[in-house]
Amino acid sequence: MDTDPKNMMLLELVKSYIDYFKHITMLNTGCILIIIALLEGVFENPNGLFLIAISIFFFVVSLVCSLVVMKIWLNYVEHMIGYIFTNWDQNKDLFRQKIKSGMSLKKKLATYVILAFLLGVFFLLGFTAINFFR
After folding, report:
1. Which residues form the domain of 115?
2. With b meaning 16 or more CB within 10 Å and e meaning fewer, what string describes 86-117?
3. Which pTM does this prediction carry?
4. CA torsion sign, 84 to 88 to 93 to 94?
5. How many separate domains does the chain show?
6. C-alpha dihedral over 60, 100, 85, 70, to 10 degrees?
7. Per-residue confidence band for 134, with pLDDT thresholds at 50, 70 and 90
8. Rounded CA gap, 119 and 109, in Å?
9. Cβ neighbour number for residue 125 with a 10 Å cutoff
10. Is residue 116's pLDDT more than 90?
11. If you write DSSP's letter for every residue of the chain in order, what string do you get?
12. What does the pLDDT look like over 29-81, one tens digit per residue?
């Protein structure tokens, strides 16, 4: 097994990306639960329900994109572990090529994750503002 610090750093970097998207997934789920709580207990006859529908849509988009990105990164971790236990010296360049080849897709999905989450929060705040100040 290869314990070269550069390779271990690469593995830790991939694991930190997975953790990052795991946290975004938890935030999206929490926001959806907050929406449910707001609709059930806080507001009677709320205005602007279309804002809630838009907000939930964006949270779900962010959630799905996060799950897809995590799955992609998990595949890379599986490949890396397989390469480490077979013959890392011969396979490390192949692994690095695999990571670079999917980078544009991961970057686009990561952008969608953040953008959709922020839009979901924006519409949720709009709904809350409309109903608190009426």
Report:
1. 5-132
2. eebeebbeebeeebeeeeeebeebbebbeebb
3. 0.78
4. negative
5. 1
6. -10
7. confident
8. 15
9. 12
10. yes
11. ----HHHHHHHHHHHHHHHHHHHHHHHHHHHHHHHHHIIIII-SS-S-HHHHHHHHHHHHHHHHHHHHHHHHHHHHHHHHHHHHHHHHHHHHHHHHHHHHHTHHHHHHHHHHHHHHHHHHHHHHHHHHHHHH--
12. 999 998 888 888 877 888 888 999 999 999 999 999 999 888 888 877 777 77
d(CA 73, CA 77): 6
Q: What is the mean pLDDT of the chain?
A: 82
Both tokens of residue 106?
């991961």
Whole-angstrom distance, CA of residue 118 vs CA of residue 123:
9
